[in-house]
Amino acid sequence: MTEIKDNIGEEKKSISFVEQIVEKDLAEGKNGGRIQTRFPPEPNGYLHIGHAKAICMDFGVAERHNGICNLRFDDTNPVKEDTEYIESIEHDIQWLGFKWANVYYASDYFQELWDFAVWLIKQGRAYVDEQSAEVIAQQKGTTTSPGTNSPYRDRPVEENLRLFEFMNSGKATPGTLVLRAKIDMAHPNMLFRDPLLYRVLNIPHVKTGTKWNAYPMYDFTHGQSDYLEGVTHSLCTLEFVEHRPLYDLFVTWIKEYKGETDNIEDNRPRQTEFNKLNLSYTLMSKRNLLALVNEGLVNGWDDPRMPTICGFRRRGYSPESIVKFIDKIGYTTYDALNEIALLESAVRDDLNSRAIRVSAVLDPVKVVITNYPEGQTEQLIAVNNPENEADGTHEVEFSRELWIERDDFMKVAEKKFMRLAPGKEVRLKNAYIIKCDEEHPCDEDENGNVTTIYCTYDPDSRSGMPGSNRKIKGKTLHWVSCVHAVKAEVRLYERLWKVENPRDVMAAIREEQGCDAVTAMKQMINPDSLNVNKNCYIEPYAAGMKPGQYLQFQRIGYFMADPDTTPDNPVFNKTVGLKDTWAKSQKA
User: Fold this and answer.
1) How far apart are CA 429 and CA 433, in angstroms?
2) 262-269 contacts: CB < 8 A, separation 24 or more?
3) CA–CA distances in Å: residue 392 to residues 357, 528, 587
4) Would you say 547 and 571 are in contact if contact means Cβ atoms under 8 Å apart?
5) Across-strand partners of 491?
6) Which long-range contacts (CB under 8 A, 24 or more apart) does 386-391 make?
7) Which of 25, 339, 344, 346 is least surrounded, with the fewest CB atoms within 10 Å of its CB?
8) What beta strand segments (E) does 399-441 contain?
9) How far apart are CA 538 and CA 484, in angstroms?
10) H or E stretch including 358?
């Protein structure tokens, strides 16, 4: 990232190396001084947070430079694609706060790509090969030795045209015929060694039906779709660096096909690559995520433990926190493993300013205030968000019997214990100062577990009233009124994986044991990644919250209502704790 300054010397926001390239191209008037990008996902799964980084780049750069970004679905493989994924992708992009100018599909260009391929055959730049995939791969050679020509490389044009038509007839057997570009089998870039342009699938397409039985390959589709669409900057991740020369060659060829040979370098899409988003304790391959779902190792694509955008949304992450995190880590030309703690920190920072504060007790023990009138109830005032006065207040019910956290009481307390203990005082949030009875502090069951704590309260210490500022040594505790509390289910989440880099560890396990991906995954999954607590109590105001409303359970963490919530059974997902307790637990 490079700092830039405006005309009066004030520092402005840093821009990435990608954006510097874009600004240079605009300044030089390339592509008529305009910018057009695209986000081209394959609709074969749900988007994950790695895609969010590409979304922020593709849409963000165009938006900041008065350009447009199109959403283009790379639907060239009908085997894996589904309208469910298309709808989810559109929803996720909008949720992140971005808007596309147009929605396109690679299949929109199938006819144009086919005609272009026919032109290449007539130009002697493409041929139909009848060899198997294994034989073709063997003929490619290695990085240190050249490949060998296919025996079909010099077929007559007429025969190639006939066979190409046969590939799309529905009568050709998949795997028996492919169309290849005729480039250079000795080229140092292996991708130039007569790459595949078309293969036979004989599978109906969700958009084009049975019109096509031969489908274009990604490398042949991507750049041509960019060109036909008017894309000026094709922004990709680093694995496409080696593909860029082929991308440029195919774009040059299609411009020749179109008869657009003037200013060929100034008016064409340009590919620029940046690093992927890699997170610790996270696996982000759609293939592996699909396996988790299909094997029942998680509860669907939107399981809050999943790194999918819909999973983060269900867990309670805000779109702003994700975008801010991506902006913070930036874009480089080398891959790195980012700490997931950085993402969680960004979530905390963002939710602190938007989450409504409520009371919830996750491990309850009863407190009885012996000098508070039986049957009496007070309506106390709680500030919704101290960071934002406009969020207002809500009423909290207070009564003689309360629930507090079990950890907030000790029968025999050490000197530094500043919560409730015999003879000690604490303040109840938004309420009164209470003091634990010294002679009879609590009742216990036959196993020695505390069942009831006995306290008295100071009637003059009510928060907000004269005299309420009396200083005590004890901390402020959260609580809920027993008679008013609503029982709730709380789902507490931790990292899905036990290992910091599950991708590399999975590869090592598979190599060592000769097992498949699922078997390796099962050895890495954290058995404590989900803990369901059905013995929680929340204040009535919190019970009415819906999915999409950000909450802070005071002194515990950030939470959000889950779609499984019903009027009789509120369900909440823990988004993230108030502090990073994972790192501390790993050192213990």
Assistant:
1) 9
2) 266/29, 266/30, 266/31, 267/30, 267/31, 267/32, 268/31, 268/227, 269/223, 269/226, 269/227, 269/231, 269/232, 269/233, 269/234
3) 11, 37, 41
4) no
5) 532, 573
6) 386/357, 387/352, 387/353, 388/353, 388/354, 391/356
7) 339
8) 401-405, 425-428, 433-436
9) 9
10) strand 356-358
Exposure of 381 by Cβ count < 10 A (0-12 exposed, 13-18 middle, 19+ buried)?
exposed
Query: Distance (Å, rounded) from C-alpha 246 to C-alpha 96?
Result: 33
This prediction's pTM = 0.92
In 3D space, the residue among 458, 456, 426, 457 whose CA is nearest the CA of residue 441 turns out to be 456
Quick: pLDDT tens for 68-125.
Answer: 999 999 999 998 888 899 999 999 999 999 999 999 999 999 999 999 999 999 999 9
Q: Please report, as a single letter, which amino acid is at residue 320.
A: E
d(CA 107, CA 86): 14
Q: How far, in Å, CA of 276 to CA of 85, rounded?
A: 21
Residue with tokens 């995954």, as numbered in its chain: 521
Q: What are phi and psi of 163, to 5 degrees?
A: -70, -35
In whole angstroms, what is the distance from residue 153 CA to residue 193 CA? 12
Rounded alpha-carbon distances, angstroms, from residue 483 to 65, 88, 235, 378: 58, 42, 58, 12
CA–CA gap between residue 325 and residue 410 (Å, rounded): 40
Checking if the pLDDT of 7 tops 80, the result is no
Within 10 angstroms of residue 63's Cβ, the number of other Cβ atoms is: 15
Closest residue by Cα to residue 283 from 70, 136, 453, 498: 498
Torsion of CA 111, 114, 116, 122, to 10 degrees: -140
Residue 175, phi-psi category: left (phi > 0), alpha (psi -120 to 50), beta (remainder): left
Q: What is the pLDDT of residues 313-336, one digit of tens each?
A: 999 999 999 999 999 999 999 999
Residues in the chain: 588
The token pair at 294 is 């299909």
The helix/strand/coil state of 569 is: strand
Residue-wise pLDDT tens digits, 124-161: 999 999 999 999 999 999 999 999 999 999 999 999 99
- Cβ contact 295:518 at 8 Å: yes
Residues 534-586: tens digit of each pLDDT: 999 999 999 999 999 999 999 999 999 999 999 999 999 999 999 876 455 55
CA distances from 155 to 136, 186, 468 (A): 16, 20, 94
Q: Measure the CA–CA gap between 549 and 356, rounded to whole angstroms.
A: 8
Q: Which residue has the tokens 């359970």?
A: 553
Nearest to 277 by CA among 226, 348, 222, 342: 342
Q: Which residues contact 411 (CB under 8 A, 6 or more apart)?
A: 421, 422, 441, 442, 450
Percent with pLDDT over 70 in the chain: 96
How far is the C-alpha of 252 from the C-alpha of 388, rounded, in Å?
Answer: 56
Q: Tell me, what DSSP letter sits at residue 256?
A: H
CA-atom Rg of the chain in angstroms = 31
